[in-house]
Structures are given as C-alpha cells and as structure tokens.
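Notes from the 1:1 (GR / supervisor)

We went over the backlog. Supervisor wanted to see one worked example end to end before approving the batch request, so GR pasted a single chain during the call. The sequence is below; no edits were made to it. Supervisor asked that the structure be written out right there so they could see what the output format looks like.
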Amino acid sequence: MCEPGQKKVPRGIFPCCYNCEDCPSGTFLNQSDPYSCVDCLWHQWSPPRSHHCMERELNYLEWHAPFSIFLLTLTNGGLLLTIIIAIIFILNYNTPVVRSAGGRMCFLMLASIICSFSCVFFYIDKPSNAFCQIRQIFFTVSFTICLSCILVRSFQIVCIFKLAAKLPKAHEYWVKYNGQYMFIFLSTFIQIIICTVWMITGPPSTHGHIITKAIVLDCNIGNTIGFSLSFLYTVFLTVACFIFAYMGRDLPKNYNEAKFIAFSMMICFVYYILYMTSMVTPNQERYTSHIQTFLTVTSAFSIALGYFVPKCYIILFMPQNNTMVYFQSCIQDYTKRQNDAN
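Structure output shown during the call:
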C-alpha cells in the first residue's frame, strides 16, 4: 500500500506488483486513479507528494500594505507641495519671478504634475483592464503636457536672448499667434494620437505572473509598438528640454534655468532607464508594480522640486531678487558682456 500522494508504478505483468513513486510538485494523486498524478489547474499549486491542490495567493499592491502606505504618503506630500506652490504663484502672480517662470503656463504645468501624482491611485488595489489603460494614458498625457511646457519655456528664453534679433519676423509671429500654446497643444495632440492607436490596436490589460505559491497580478503593456512609440516620444521631449536648457546656460542668472531643468531631466532619464529595466529584468515580476509606481512618484517630484521650488525660495526668502529693477540690471549686465565679447 502506497503512502498518500504516491502513485503506483506497475512492476512486471502482475497487478499486485508495483512500486510507489511520489507525485511531483504541481500535481496531486486522485483517489479514483492511484496509477497517475493529475496536474493542478493554472491558479493552483501543490508540494511534492500531495493528494490535493491549493489555491495560489493573489499578490498585488494592497491599500494597507506598508509599501502602499509609503507610496501614498509620498504622493499626498507631492500633491500638498504642488498645491502650496500654486498658492504661492497665485499670490505673487505679477512678480518678475512668476512671469519669468512662464506666468499662466505655470498653472498648466502644476495641473499636469497633480495629474501625474494622482496616477499612483490607479496602481494600488487589484488591477483591472480599465485601471491598466487609464493609468498609462493618464500619466503619459499629463507628463507630456508638463514636458511640453518646459520645452517651450526653455525655447522662449533662448529665443528672446539669442534668436529674436536674428529672426525678428519669426519671433513676432510666435508672440502674435501664441506660439507657445499652439506648440503645447500640438505636442500633446501627437501623444494623444499615439495613445489612441495604442489603445485600439492592443491596450494594456491585467496579467498574472505565476511565482511558486502566488499569482502576481499586474498590467502588461499591450501592443509593444504602441507603447514603444509613446515612450520614445516622451524621451524625445525630455532630450529636447535638456538641449535647450544647455543652450541657455550662459543667460542672466534670473533667467538661467539650465541647471534646474537639467537636474529635472536627468532624474527623468534615470526614471526611463529604471522603468525599462524593471520590465525586462527576469524573476522580479513580484516587484515590477512597486518599482513602476515609485518611479511615477519620483518623476513628478523631479519637476516640482527641480523647476518650481527654487523659484518659490526666491519669492519667499529673497524678495530683493524678485523686483523689476533687479531683473533689468541682470539683463543689462548680460547685454554688456555680450557686446564686450563681440
């Protein structure tokens, strides 16, 4: 007589002669057939020498998990920081620092940052097809808006100080027809088109990774080409922001945002590298969602801290540098240096 979880392996031609063999993991011995082990269903598991299968545990980011609480703390802190920045900018809207940062465009950037932080709420709890699609589109489009604003602002500053005199007609048309908002709309519209095609041809959906006793629920990327085009477009905007920031490194210091924008873009580059690494690294599916959610928070923080916090510091603690007289003196010094160089 074999032990529980062992099948009978006939030995010779006589049914009374047999050896006992353990059923391997992932199978069980059905009492109605003592001569074969039966495979467990895909959502079940079993140890060796088992006479029944057990349900795999479902793993995903739960609201009460310590890492989720950490992420929510960061997210709420980022949302609070962004709201505080918006209030400071509203109260000091007519000051040179706010105007030089982009004026009304700043509030569009801050709104997109709030949307980027809010994407974290779609990463927590049991994923669904709808949540998988919403969080990809929501973050991609909102982050594209933010990058487009930074790009157009960097271009404007470089254009005013270095290109306006050489191309006066082009600069005049840019100002007359609100070129900055046309560019932001066009840039975002391109990303929306890419995302729409992506969602039509193969949207992200829930996917389960089997890891021994558990099933890790997460979202796949759907159509690889659609995801790649959307991702590469975001990288392109980031590279363009970095290039224009580098071109403006020698501008007057109150307009010189090169180091702050470059810092933000460098963090974005790290985000892109780690995000792609988390998708292709084998045997770490259990932590993919954790990594991607943390990187989403980090990317939103990079813009808020790198672009807006230094300006808030000047507004709150260096009011003498937030006057029209100070800005004009910096411009005059820059013009004098340029003339001396020529």
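Supervisor's comment: The chain has a mean pLDDT of 84.
Batch request approved.
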